[in-house]
From TrEMBL:
In the C-terminal section; belongs to the NnrD/CARKD family. Belongs to the NnrD/CARKD family. Keywords: ATP-binding, Isomerase, Kinase, Lyase, Metal-binding, Multifunctional enzyme, NAD, NADP, Nucleotide-binding, Potassium, Transferase. The keyword Kinase applies. NCBIfam families: yjeF_cterm, yjeF_nterm. Residues 9-217 form the YjeF N-terminal domain. K(+) binds at residues 59, 126, 162. Its cofactor is K(+); Mg(2+). The gene is nnrD. Homotetramer. It comes from Maribacter sedimenticola. Its EC number is 4.2.1.136, 5.1.99.6. Gene3D superfamilies: 3.40.1190.20, YjeF N-terminal domain. Bifunctional enzyme that catalyzes the epimerization of the S- and R-forms of NAD(P)HX and the dehydration of the S-form of NAD(P)HX at the expense of ADP, which is converted to AMP. This allows the repair of both epimers of NAD(P)HX, a damaged form of NAD(P)H that is a result of enzymatic or heat-dependent hydration. Catalyzes the epimerization of the S- and R-forms of NAD(P)HX, a damaged form of NAD(P)H that is a result of enzymatic or heat-dependent hydration. This is a prerequisite for the S-specific NAD(P)H-hydrate dehydratase to allow the repair of both epimers of NAD(P)HX. This is Bifunctional NAD(P)H-hydrate repair enzyme. It catalyses: (6S)-NADPHX + ADP = AMP + phosphate + NADPH + H(+); (6S)-NADHX + ADP = AMP + phosphate + NADH + H(+); (6R)-NADHX = (6S)-NADHX; (6R)-NADPHX = (6S)-NADPHX.
Length: 517
């Protein structure tokens, strides 16, 4: 699903009204009817108090139009106009007049007004600011936002939580509505998925308001949301006459004394991701551990007992995954440096391989094109330096990936894969995955996919999706706290199977007569 910028949404709005020959207020009417239908379906006329807080722009206009529909269906509403500017939008004014015609008089709130009492079982509709916010709100509006956040009432935001900017980071995090549910027009916004602003969106849903389909489908966006539909388009089916050579040979290179487990996890994950062969290359101490615990995996050892000191081998792998548990001993750095200078195989680099690159930036020029790097936030900071906020981080990563022609996997709650100036935002995964070794599993999965012939970008995007999906399936049996990295590997098969599961269709109830032929 495309993640449009505010500029693109305004453009879609313009093109839609022009092509469909409708006025802006008709589009607002469509939007507010969608909001109303969503609420009415769930509330079925329940007499719960609904407080609608509306700004003076089009987001407020949506709120005022929604208030009219709720009123006409007998809902118990209170409408407030948050009067933060004199510049009211035209469509807001049209809808305000329509509401007044129905004898509903909003409460006009100004800076020195008392804050309204809100019960914790009430519902708040947040239509204060939409994607048109362009500066930090005034202090009294921030006070109102805080008051709503502290009310414990359920908050339903129109389009975007008020105070969040769709394409940049807010400066004041006290000035943002903490939404329980966001009904976002046409598509969600990138900001819903970033670590700083994501916590303001508990749940979201996109409402189709019929924006021009040609514009939406032909417009390139800087970010895309990755779900099942998107990964199904890259999935490569297994062929009947295939043999293990068809699916590539992964070499997993890493480990040090006390961290052999990292190599075990990556190697096993690569195999479960479907590659034909896996060899692990690790310090001698790891030999028996690997051969005993993972009989399907071949092992090569360094001459050193505890660390990697020399990376040379006779085998011909399809792709090499490096860095898990490897350490940053001087001898390992030397070995990794000379390996990079002579290597021509595609690479997936994680953990200490990234840490070494961060300290020895001269080595970056030896990365083969399309190398995949999978840093967690600390490793990323070592690699690209500190960032001011999430948007600054994304821009820095795009620059780094362009400069070094690589794919960067920004790991986190919504992992984002970056290549060629575009970001792919993953939707699977859960906090149970914040556990030792889950990153090692991801490197293994991506390496396993790359070996099977997936492009670097597709291996990263699909690998991140499968990893998260395996976590989502695993958590149903383990719960968040007791999930461990091995559970991700055990559920990788289920994650593959889930790709082809069709959601169950609701069955007609027995009471309903069957349709006549
Ligand atoms: N195609 C779609 O998706 C459709 C979208 N629709 C809806 O339109 C919404 C966008 O509406 P919008 O452009 O009128 O902006 P909105 O967010 O209501 O802000 C109002 C104005 O306030 C101002 N302002 C900004 N920051 C401020 C601040 N801190 N303190 C004080 N003032 C501030 C600023 O004006 P300025 O003062 O800068 O001139 C701004 O213009 C969108 O989110 C969706 O709900 C639907 O109606 C149907 C189709
Ligand atoms: N809250 C979360 N939601 C979803 N995924 C998460 C969350 N926390 C961590 N993960 C995922 O778990 C993995 C952790 O990687 P990493 O920190 O490198 O672990 P390790 O070094 O222990 O192997 C990443 O793929 C990350 O995206
Ligand atoms: K809003």
């Amino acid at each position: 699903m495309k993640l449009f910028s505010a500029k693109q949404i305004y453009k879609a709005d313009q093109i839609t009204t022009k092509k469909q020959g409708i006025a802006g207020e008709e589009l607002m009417e469509r939007a507010s009817l969608q909001l109303f239908n969503w609420m009415h379906l769930r509330m079925q006329g329940a007499p719960v108090k609904i407080h609608l807080f509306c700004g003076i722009g089009n987001n407020g206009g949506d709120g005022i139009a929604l208030a009219r529909h709720l009123l006409e269906h007998g809902y118990n509403i209170a409408v407030y106009v948050v009067n933060y500017s004199e510049k009211r939008s035209e469509d807001f004014l049209i809808n305000l007049a329509r509401l007044k015609e129905r004898k509903c008089w909003p409460n006009f709130m100004n800076s020195d007004d008392e804050l309204p009492v809100i019960g914790k079982d009430d519902i708040i509709v947040d239509g204060i600011f939409g994607i048109g916010i362009n500066r930090t709100p005034d202090a009294w509006v921030i006070k109102l936002i805080q008051h709503l956040n502290n009310s414990q009432a359920f908050i339903l935001s129109i389009d975007i939580p008020s105070g969040l900017f769709s394409d940049q980071s807010p400066k004041d995090f006290d000035a943002i509505i903490k939404s329980n549910y966001v009904l976002s027009f046409q598509a969600p916004k990138l900001t819903f998925f970033l670590p700083e602003s994501g916590p303001y969106v508990e749940q979201w849903e996109a409402l189709d308001i019929g924006l021009d389909v040609d514009y939406l489908s032909s417009t390139e966006t800087a970010y895309e949301l990755i779900g099942k539909n998107e990964v199904l388009t890259v999935y490569r089916p297994r062929e009947k006459y295939a043999h293990k050579g068809t699916y590539g040979h992964v070499l997993i290179l890493g480990g040090s004394y006390g961290k052999i487990g990292a190599v075990c996890l990556s190697s096993k994950a690569a195999l479960h991701a479907g590659c034909g062969l896996v060899t692990a290359y690790l310090p001698a101490v790891g030999y028996s551990i690997l051969q005993t615990s993972l009989p399907e995996i071949m092992v090569l050892t360094d001459k050193d007992e505890k660390i990697i000191t020399d990376i040379t081998f006779e085998i011909d792998p399809t792709i090499i995954g490096v860095g898990m548990g490897m350490g940053t001993d001087d001898k390992t750095i030397m070995a990794f440096g000379s390996f990079l200078k002579s290597n021509e195989k595609p690479l997936v680099l994680d953990a200490d391989a990234i840490n070494i690159l961060s300290k020895h930036k001269d080595l970056l020029k030896h990365l083969p094109k399309d190398t995949i790097l999978t840093p967690h936030p600390k490793e990323l900071e070592r690699l690209i330096g500190k960032w001011k906020n999430d948007f600054d981080k994304l821009n820095k990563v795009k620059k780094f990936s362009d400069q070094h022609q690589c794919v960067v996997v920004i790991k986190g709650a919504n992992t984002i894969v970056v290549q060629n100036g575009k970001g792919y935002v993953n939707t699977t995964g859960n906090p149970g995955m914040a556990t030792a070794g889950s990153g090692d599993v991801l490197t293994g999965i991506i390496s396993g996919l790359r070996a099977q012939g997936y492009s670097a970008l597709n291996a990263a995007v699909f690998g991140v999706y499968l990893h998260g999906k395996a976590g989502d399936i695993a958590v149903e049996k383990t719960g968040y706290q007791s999930m461990v990295a091995t559970d991700l590997i055990s559920n990788l098969g289920n994650a593959y199977l889930d790709l082809f599961q069709i959601p169950e269709q609701p069955q007609p109830s027995e009471a309903e007569p069957e349709a006549q032929q």
